[in-house]
Amino acid sequence: MDYYRFAIRSTVAESTAEQREIILAFLGDLPFDTFEESETGWLAFGPVANWDDPDLARLDALGAQRHLAWEKTRIPAQNWNARWEANFAPIRVEQFCAIRADFHPPQTGVEHEIIINPKMAFGTGHHETTYLVLSLLHRLPLAGRRVLDYGCGTGVLAILAAKCGAQPVDAIDYDVLAYDNTLENCRVNATEGVRVFHGTLEKLHDRRYDLILANINRNVILAQLSALYSMVLPGGTLVVSGFLLRDRALLQQSAEREGFHFGELDHRNQWLCMRFHRNI
pTM, whole model, 2 decimals? Predict the structure, then answer.
């Protein structure tokens, strides 16, 4: 899968932290997968297949309104892999877990060490949303619980759940590269018991879970809340992430309309993670 890289910068001399947060919130409505801060603004990435002329027109309009300039570069798949490998450094979530690539030395002093070779799939723990879900898993009972990692990316959340004793653990992604990468990472981490699926939630419509992890994006979560509610067992939990602080009210109201009850939230920079539960 090829990606677009957008180098986005402000055309005014200085911008406040609040102004940058507002701009990032608007950018979050466009089909970007991830953002990186740069000295002058942001590097924003999104699959070529997700972009069309109306999206580019929306970005132009945002640029005119917020004094932004942008340049778009197409990144072939093999170059995207090299970029991640070159910039992938080990991370730690307190003493709970450490994530590294196979070319890094072992990490010590943590309960769980996970080896992730990201290839084309997102989910290394570096992005705020993945980090938030990893941190939340430390506070949830996982042993013996049925878990689904929806939009699994690299499979890091499914792998950690399995290492914490969850069983069975399913992982699903519509992107075949993410599916292949999750299979590979499960083998590397000796969590072959994780059942990995390629496709959409429809493939799992007859399965029910104690815990569903949906670290995707706002629009996908909103579109699938009804299906997710039907797949969470009574007394079970839904964890959602991949959206910005300004979307909290929309996500909470939409989830509550489906029958979920709000549990807790956490944020990292402008990114949000929320936990809901379904009553018994």
Answer: 0.76
